[in-house]
Amino acid sequence: MAKFYNLNSIETGDFTIDVELEADGGYDGIGSYEYWGQKCFDKGHWDLNVEDIKPRFTDEPQELRDKINKYIDDNFQMLADKFAENWDYPEPREPGE
Fold this sequence. Notes:
Number of domains: 1
Distance between the termini: 25 Å
Helix content: 10-25%
Order of helices and strands: EEEEEHH
């Protein structure tokens, strides 16, 4: 599994904050293969497991920082699933591309 770092943002009605994601992920496709003379391609799929969501604070007051941290803690799994779903996964390529 590779370790990924990516920047995204969280937007709610109360605040918008840039966050850094720490995640493990991998690709399980084997690509091109031949089986009994038939040429095949296993596209596979990406798997991403978000391990941490870190807000990138700048000059927010402590009260807002506490509110943002609480929001992330209370909604971690929903946010992790949303980020994984919207991750910019590279597409597997056919041989010769």
